[in-house]
Design goal:
Length: about 210
Amino acid sequence: MSLIMISNVVLSFPHLIEPQVQKKDDGTERRTWSADFILDQTHPGYAQFMQQVAVIAQEKWKEHANQVLQFISNDRKMRCYGSGAEKINKKTFQPYDGYVGKVYITAISDKPPQVIQADGTPVDATNTMAYQMLTRKMYGGCHVNAAVKIWGQENKHGRGIRSDLIAIQFAADGTPFGEGAPDVSGLFGSVGAAPAAPGFPSFLGPQ
């Protein structure tokens, strides 16, 4: 069974409310929903994930599984998992917030993933307002539970290990990634009632 559950992991780079749109070589568009999940290296969910990767590789590539996995391990673009140290910000040349000393799993879907409510039931996919309300709670740095499906890729783009984002559930608040908006309130004083603009009548009282 290639479907696994990873619980209480940190969410990063969520694209859940709206999909990312990419132009394909043939001119068509690909719309994807995706997220990174950051885990401690000792997280039991990561051990389970890697065990399943080995199973999928054995089923897909038989006696060549170990060699193929070695090739995939050496090419970050061909796998959906790895060391947090690999996730480098191209502007700062440093790992992104939250990745240092961790491992990650990236999951992608060509359709909106199931969003699970606090009571464990999925939100009705046709209820756009409810779906967006739940996904807006899921920011980079919060904790989530997720179900992902692992599969082996072999096509014109090469051999790889991928995971589909099947379902996601908000678990708990965390420290948001990034610096956030600066507090500039100390730079401003109070403002009195603004006078009416010249040439326009006042509607605040009798003339």
